[in-house]
Each structure stands twice: as C-alpha cells, then as structure tokens.
C-alpha cells in the first residue's frame, strides 16, 4: 500500500468533519438508541439493520468510521469491530459450520481458538484436525469431504510458523472451503492476506491497532456478503459488537500505527542481532531474520515484521530461566503484545517445574515483545538479566 493511500485511510477515510463542527478528532456517539421521523423509515431499517442505525448493539457512527478504515487497511470489502479478539475468532468460524462438519487448523493456534475447536464445537458435532501447515500439501491431505473451514495463523505467536497463503487459498477455493486467518502478528500494515485470496481476516485489535495497552477489541474483515451474514445473526444475537468509546480508542491508535511499527521494527532487529550472538542463547526465531527457516516465504508475504521474537536459552535448569525473567528491571512480564511497553514471557510459565524437559527447546523458549523504549535501554536490561542464566 502506498504511503499516500495509507495516510488517507488513517486520517480521512470515513470522517466527515462538516457533520461535527469541523472538529479534528471525531466524536464518540455515546448512545444506545436512534430515533426515526416516520414509521416507514423505521420499517425499512427493521428490514435491513445492516443498512443504518437502530440500536448501538448493531451499528453506530463511531464504530462505522472504524469499520471503514479497517476494511480499507486489509483491502477487503467490509469489516466488523468486536469487543475482543476471541469474539473475532468465534465469529469467523461458528456461523459457517453445522453438525457433522470438519475444520482443518494450524497446530497450536491461539489458546482461545483451541478452546473453541477442542471444547465448544465438539458439543455441536463439529471436529477439528490440527496439521503442520507450513506445507500446503499437508493441509490438502487433511481435507475431508465435510471440511468447511481452513483456519490459519501466519505467523503464529511463538515459533512464527508461516503458511503459504496463496497456495492454501487456491486449493480451498477449488473445494469450496472457507479460509480464515489470524493476522494479529503482522498487523494490516505488514501483511494483507485477502490479497493472496484468504476469505476472512481477523485481528486482536488489543495489540497493534490499539497500541496503548488500554483497550480490548477484535477485528473481522472480509467480503461484504459474509460480513453481513455474520452481522445479521451471530453478531447481533451474541452482542459481540465493540462499544463506541473503545472504537474511538482504536481510531486514536490507528493515527500512529505506521510510526509505531517503524520504530518497533527497527529496535527489534537490533535486539534480534544482539541475542543471536549471545553465548547463552541457543536460537533466535524472528520471521524476517535471514536464518529463519521460512525466511523466503516471510519476505514474499510480509512487507515488514513486528516486535515479537522468541529465543531459546542455553540452560538445563528451569530455576535459572525463572531467575532471568524475575531479574528484568524494565521489561515487564506479561501476556499479549502490541502496546508501547516491552514484555517478556517464558514458555515454561504454562507448565509445572516437574513437567519441564530441558531436552525440549520449546520448554527453554522465551518470547519477547519489543515496545517503544530506546534500544540500548532494553538491551542493557536483557544483558544484565542474562547473568542469571
């Protein structure tokens, strides 16, 4: 996307300042309800709620401004703004399956996608096969006659496994299978899956789109017909829409998205290079590092990489990994990513000490998110903590 077009989307698209006193910042239309001048006008809206405003559980002017920008950023026809990334996952899948259907998913998708596939959908007779989707042939081999959805996450958020989006979209279209991708890692600035033929693109907008660690939200982008289908039933029934104030917070976050990503990517590359050469680091995983196993595919599909990378430490002692994390002075220990602050999380936090296996590199993996701090500030913190390894 050209910088001129990006600037227009972020600063002007969907904004009609002549309607709100020429205010630079858009208003928060904080209303639950909308009035009608005539019965006929109300009747038309009841027949097509997706065409206008009745009740803010459905559409709202502040939310619509955000929807227009999100769809344009992902180069899709339409978008829904939701109250969480988990809502986006749910609404990308649930409306399109019924009893007896089958889903093919990448291995170890985001935890709440796994909950949906493992615990919720089987209650309705829908089952999922997990595959190593780094090869399109593996995905193709898992497809059954009743497969309705291929669920992707590229890159994922731990080892950054990448799928060939064009190849998978092509084979899915041949078999009339819906393709869904979680594009949270790359943001709409660095990867546009719809361009490669993916049907539905979702984000945890809590992350880069918000950028300030103060809003929980989700995004679902795709063709107008699919978005309207979701809106008319599951979206309205479950009440998963974002609130006007949170939509306004995301609009604010979008203003600075390119500038934040530029700084984050620059700092991340510096830290990745330093960690690759540290004697206590066995491996660094970052999609746009030339040593990354899928580097060429990453370059083909992604115009940049964000602030998330993982590294495997050289130690057989889980307590030393804990000591490393506990001794960080400036980098916070927390889940998620995409905000202004740098974060770290050890993979072993999700297991007991007894379950820790030093021979498994995954158990010795630590994930870092790089925020907006100065590179030397972060590097100094990492280096002093490395002494505990």
Q: What structural keywords apply?
A:
five-stranded mixed β-sheet, 38% helix, Aspartate Aminotransferase, domain 2, 389 residues, Aspartate Aminotransferase, domain 1
Describe this protein's structure.
The chain has two domains: about 5-255, Aspartate Aminotransferase, domain 2, CATH 3.40.640.10; about 255-385, Aspartate Aminotransferase, domain 1, CATH 3.90.1150.10. Helix content is about 40%, strand content about 15%. It contains 14 helices and twelve strands. The protein has helices spanning about 5-10, 40-45, 60-75, 85-95, 110-120, 135-140, 165-175, 185-190, 225-240, 245-255, 255-275, 295-300, 320-325, 375-385, and strands at about 80, 100-105, 125-130, 145-155, 180, 200-205, 220, 280-285, 310-315, 330-335, 345, 365-370. Helix 3 packs across helix 10. It is globular and about 75 Å long.
